[in-house]
Write a structure and sequence with these properties.
Elements lengths: L1 H35 L2 H10 L12 H24 L6 H19 L5 H22 L5 H21 L6 H21 L2 E4 L7 E3 H23 L4 H25 L2 E2 L1
Antiparallel strand pairs: 1-2, 1-3
Helix pairs in contact: 1-2, 1-4, 2-3, 3-4, 3-5, 3-6, 5-6, 5-8, 6-7, 8-9
Length: 262
């Protein structure tokens, strides 16, 4: 009985420590960006928080790095958006909201391992990753933008496929990455974005929304194929209708209210 109580006490202490450390990371990133006005120290802090990735034998480093890349993409994107939010009216409120969302990611979304949560993690990484990339890439050469898009596509595809124990994970991830690269090349030359109120330089690019919707449809199609051996129309049709409806709404909104070119 004493051992059982001790185990429960240690489990509770571990949970409390996990919550405190993750909240501390989110707050530390906010404080660093707010006071230093530079993303680099905050990015280094996020990377240092992943020290356990390398706390194993070197042969496991690659697998651990790949497994943590979605979290790293979200963390670095949060830093970029915190920096981009500076300077505008209501920038502090926007930065606090971003910090709270990042804390919610660390505490409630990232630790989950169910397939539905894994798909959600990948979807979030696509939206915030492409958004942050679009914010900072206005002066880049298109080659680097396309490479960054390829990397995001490869990481999120591998993240989702890993939950299915897919034999051809690398091949399918490369195919998705190629599609991301192609969308990136088109998007770089025709990158339209929706301005957000009181958010500094943060704008929501159409590229992030479109790639996220296509990823949602692809995930539903793969889930149907994995379960049934074929892609059932009934499984995919709701996702296709939703993606088509939201895409049409975006373009109607753009025609009526206008967008900005990044």
């Amino acid at each position: 009985m004493d051992l059982l109580k001790m185990h429960k006490r240690r489990s509770r202490l571990s949970e409390v420590a996990y919550i405190v450390l993750n909240l501390g990371l989110a707050v530390a990133v906010f404080v660093i960006v707010y006071t230093a006005h530079s993303p680099w120290l905050a990015i280094v802090t996020i990377l240092l928080s992943k020290w356990r990735v390398l706390a194993v034998r070197p042969r496991f480093w690659y697998a651990n790095i790949v497994a943590n890349m979605v979290d790293i993409i979200v963390g670095i994107s949060a830093v970029i958006l915190l920096v981009a939010a500076q300077g505008g009216a209501g920038s502090l409120a926007t930065q606090i909201i971003i910090t709270l969302l990042y804390a919610g990611w660390l505490l409630f979304i990232k630790p989950r391992s169910r397939r539905s949560y894994v798909a959600l993690q990948a979807l979030i990484a696509v939206v915030v990753g492409v958004t942050a990339l679009s914010v900072i890439s206005y002066a880049w050469d298109s080659f680097f933008f396309v490479v960054a898009m390829w990397s995001i596509g490869f990481v999120v595809a591998r993240h989702v496929l890993g939950s299915y124990d897919e034999v051809h994970t690398t091949l399918y991830s490369m195919i998705v990455a190629l599609a991301f690269a192609e969308f990136g090349w088109i998007g770089f030359h025709w990158l339209m974005a929706y301005p957000l109120p009181n958010s500094g330089n943060i704008q929501l690019p159409q590229l992030a929304l479109i790639t996220a919707l296509l990823c949602f449809v692809a995930e539903r199609a793969y889930a149907s194929y994995h379960k049934n051996g074929v892609v059932r129309r009934a499984d995919v049709l709701p996702a296709v209708i939703l993606a088509a409806a939201l895409s049409a709404t975006m373009y109607i909104f753009a025609l009526v209210f206008g967008t900005d070119a990044l």
